[in-house]
Specification:
By secondary structure, the chain is mainly α. The protein is built from eleven helices and two strands, in the order αααααααββαααα. Strands 1-2 form a two-stranded antiparallel sheet. β1 and β2 form a beta hairpin. The longest helix is centred in the last third of the chain and has 35 residues. It is elongated.
Length: 343
C-alpha cells in the first residue's frame, strides 16, 4: 500500500538526502512561505497579512478639516500675540492718557474700543483650543464673538467719524450726514452678518487631538458686510481729502505735512483692509483666509483708531504746554472755542 506524499514531506526528504547548508534552509523556508501564502483561499486572513484597524482610517475631508483647524489655531495665536504686543508697547502712553485726561463720552468710547478686542481674543482662543463636538455650542460662541466684533468695529469707525467732524470745523450738516450713513451701515452690516452666521455650516474635527470648530458661509454673504464698511470708509476718505486739498491751498504747506496733520494714513489703512475683506471671499473659498482677514480687520481698526486718538491727544498736551497759540479740537473730540486756546 503506497502513501501519497505531500509537497511538504517531499521537500523534507530532499533536505535529508542532501547536505544541509544555511542557504538551502533559507531557500526551503522561502518556498514554504510562498506556497502557504498562495494556498490560502480568498477572504481568509493569514498570519502574514496585517489586519487594518478601521477606526484609524479617516477620509480626505476629515484630514483637510483637521488641517484647517490647526491653521486657525496658529492664526488666532498670532493675532493674539500681535494685539498683546501692541498693547504692551503703548501701555505707558495709554495709561498716561487714562489717568490725565478728563472723563467724557470720548474717553468712554476709547475704553470700549481698546478693551473689547480682548474679549474677542479670549472667545476665539477658547473656541479654538477647547474640545468641542457640539455644533450648537460652537455656534453660540461664534455669535458671542460676532457681537463683540461688531461693537469693536462700530466704536473704531466712530473715532473716524468724530475726527472727520473735527476736520470740518464741527459742521453740523456733515455730522448729521455721517451719522445717518453710519447708522444705516451698522444696521445693515449687523443684519447681513448675523444672517450669514445663522445660515453657515459649523464644522468640527473627528480626528482625536484636533480641537476647535469653525464656520463656513457662501462668498457673497461674507463679502456684503465688508462692502458696506468699504463704502463708508471711502466716504470718510473723500471728505478728509477735500479738507486736505483746501488746507494745502490755503496754508501753502507741503502736501506731506498736510496729509500727516489730517491723519489721512489712518483712513487709507482702514479703507485698504476693508477692500481686502471684500475681495478675499471672491478670490478664494478657503475659510482660513476669510477668518484671518476678518479678525485682522477687527484688531487693526481698533489699533488705528486708538493710536490716532493717542497721537492727537499727545499733540494737544504738548501744544498746551508750549508758548504758541494752538487749537486742536481732537483732544477730547469736543468743540473748541477761542477761550479754550492757551498762550
Amino acid at each position: 500500500m503506497y502513501k501519497v506524499l505531500t509537497p511538504e514531506l517531499e521537500r523534507a526528504l530532499r533536505l535529508v538526502q542532501r547536505p544541509v547548508t544555511i542557504s538551502t534552509l533559507c531557500k526551503s523556508a522561502s518556498e514554504t512561505f510562498h506556497h502557504d501564502h498562495q494556498a490560502k483561499p480568498n477572504g481568509v486572513p493569514n498570519i502574514y497579512t496585517p489586519i487594518k484597524d478601521k477606526k484609524t482610517e479617516h477620509s480626505v475631508n476629515d484630514v483637510a478639516m483637521a488641517r484647517s483647524l490647526r491653521y486657525l489655531a496658529y492664526i488666532f495665536t498670532a493675532l493674539a500675540t500681535f494685539w498683546t504686543y501692541d498693547y504692551v508697547r503703548s501701555l505707558h502712553e495709554e495709561w498716561t492718557f487714562l489717568l490725565r485726561s478728563r472723563w467724557n463720552k470720548v474717553k468712554f468710547l476709547y475704553i470700549i474700543t481698546r478693551y473689547v478686542p480682548f474679549i474677542v481674543i479670549i472667545t476665539e482662543l477658547y473656541l479654538t483650543f477647547t474640545p468641542n463636538e457640539n455644533p450648537n455650542q460652537c455656534r453660540m460662541l461664534n455669535n458671542i464673538y460676532s457681537c463683540f466684533g461688531v461693537i469693536s468695529v462700530t466704536c473704531s469707525d466712530g473715532f473716524f467719524v468724530l475726527r472727520t467732524y473735527a476736520l470740518w470745523n464741527n459742521n453740523k450738516i456733515i455730522l448729521v450726514a455721517m451719522l445717518s450713513a453710519f447708522l444705516a451701515i451698522v444696521l445693515s452690516f449687523s443684519g447681513i452678518w448675523f444672517t450669514a452666521i445663522a445660515t453657515s455650516h459649523v464644522r468640527t474635527s473627528v480626528i482625536p487631538g484636533i480641537t476647535g470648530c469653525y464656520r463656513s458661509s457662501r462668498s457673497v454673504q461674507l463679502s456684503m458686510p465688508f462692502l458696506l464698511l468699504f463704502i463708508f470708509a471711502l466716504g470718510l476718505v473723500s471728505l478728509t481729502l477735500i479738507r486736505v486739498i483746501h488746507s494745502w491751498r490755503t496754508a501753502k504747506s507741503p502736501l506731506h505735512a498736510v496729509l500727516v496733520k489730517h491723519n489721512i494714513f489712518y483712513y487709507v489703512c482702514s479703507l485698504l483692509i476693508s477692500a481686502v475683506n471684500v475681495l478675499m471671499p471672491i478670490l478664494t473659498s478657503n475659510s482660513i483666509y476669510h477668518a484671518f482677514f476678518e479678525h485682522f480687520q477687527v484688531f487693526s481698526l481698533a489699533i488705528l483708531a486708538t493710536r490716532m486718538h493717542l497721537y492727537l491727544w499727545d499733540i494737544d498736551q504738548h501744544a498746551h504746554s508750549s508758548d504758541a497759540v494752538v487749537c486742536i479740537s481732537m483732544s477730547d473730540m469736543s468743540p473748541v472755542s477761542p477761550a479754550d486756546c492757551t498762550v
